[in-house]
Amino acid sequence: MSVVVDGRLVDTVAIRREIERRFPGVVAWYGEHTCRWWAVVWCGQWRLLEAPTPRALVGAIEVATFRRSSVVW
Question: Which superkingdom (predicted)?
Fold first, then answer.
């Protein structure tokens, strides 16, 4: 699916696939009604993340997964 975001035509499926390829186990999508990017991430527990752009979503995923990997047991 393609949508116009900030005046640009964006292929949301391609972006979602790239995010999911980069972060195995993550499920990502673009919310047509919210006009936001979303992801479900396992970081010790399931977390729902949202962001205004794909780049911001990737940053949120990196923070969530880094926090999980930096926990000392």
Answer: Bacteria
